[in-house]
Amino acid sequence: MVTGKPNFILYAQHGWADTGKAIASLANRLATPKTLIIAPSLGFVNTWLRIEPLIEAVEKIAIETNSRYPDTPIRIIGHSMGGLIWLEVLNRHPEWWSRVESLVLVASPVGGADLARMFDPLSLGVGIAGDLGKNRRGIAAAIAKEIPTLIIAGDFDNGSDGTIPIGSTKFRNAQFVLLPRLAHAIMRHHSEVATVIKDFWASEKILTSIPDPDITDLLIDRLQLISGITDAHHRDFTKAQVCFTLDNGVSICTWKNSLGIDHVFVSCPEGKCLYSGFVGWLHSENLRQTIQEIAQEFTKKTS
Q1: Which DSSP helix (H) or strand (E) runs through 177?
Q2: Residue pair 93/100 in contact by the 8 Å Cβ criterion
Q3: What is the mean pLDDT of residues 226-251?
Q4: Confidence grade of residue 4 (pLDDT, cut at 50, 70, 90)
């Protein structure tokens, strides 16, 4: 229990199919004796239903806590869906942004979870799958432009943490750290995650230090804007065929699986997959048109 004014408020939020115990242990690794830790458990069953009541619950707690300590700095950590919850809360309260010293998203599917899209292939908004499949990159990039933001992703199987594809955690204006051999669940409380967060907190967090996007970044951004696209694992890249190659050696490749789901990949000149995504049946034409547009637009940019 903190007595007196805290040095900072540390919000730590668990994700889907979880409670607050593991993320609270991570918060305790990071806290000082004067840190006020807020790590609410939203209820295991509740995380299987819809995200809006969870957002409202966290928002209510934050409003009460921030009002009680109006001049105390804020730090935020969210694991998986917990990161998505906090993106939504911050999006509703830009008046808090100046108080937030850092936002850390651990294994959060900001671009949309591919497993969720498999349960909701037509993007009908079916239960929590519809909520987790939503692309929140626009919200995240806007927040990260104003709040020092760190993305931590795990690479357990050469493309994902076993649950969340690496690509779906990424967005503009944030720093990115990839931790090898860490699976999704263990990242809630792993010592390596704590070390990365401590290093981030100790660093000079300059918002303008994020490098400007290059042609490859812009190309991936263009694909991620396609209606209905979801970031995917790289495992099927070897099955893809090259559609075209830009003058800088970057290639666009495509593949259709046995269910007729269209996939798109971006590869570097050395043949390594840089991005992979897929669209459902309803959005296949969007993908086809975008690839045609890219062939025209980006060939000019690299020539």
Answers
A1: strand 175-180
A2: no
A3: 93
A4: confident
The angle that helices 215-224 and 284-302 make with each other, rounded to 10 degrees, is: 160
What is the pTM for the complete model shown? 0.90
Indicate left, alpha or beta for 239 from its phi (over 0: left) and psi (-120 to 50: alpha). Answer: alpha
| Residue carrying the six token digits 């730090």 | 75
DSSP states along 216-282: HHHHHHHHHTSTTEEE--GGGGGG-EEEEE-TTS-EEEEEE-TT--EEEEEE-TTS-EEEEEEE-GG
Tell me which residue has tokens 């939203």: 42
Domains with residue ranges and CATH for the chain: 8-209 (3.40.50.1820), 215-302 (no CATH)
The torsion angle over the Cα atoms of residues 149, 154, 84 and 78, rounded to 10 degrees, is: -70
Q: Is 68 in contact with 94 (CB distance < 8 Å)?
A: no
Phi-psi region for residue 181, left (φ > 0), alpha (ψ -120 to 50) or beta? left
pLDDT digits (tens, 9 = 90+) for 187-197: 999 999 999 99
Q: Each residue of 83-135: pLDDT tens digit? A: 999 999 999 999 999 999 999 999 999 999 887 766 666 555 667 888 998 99
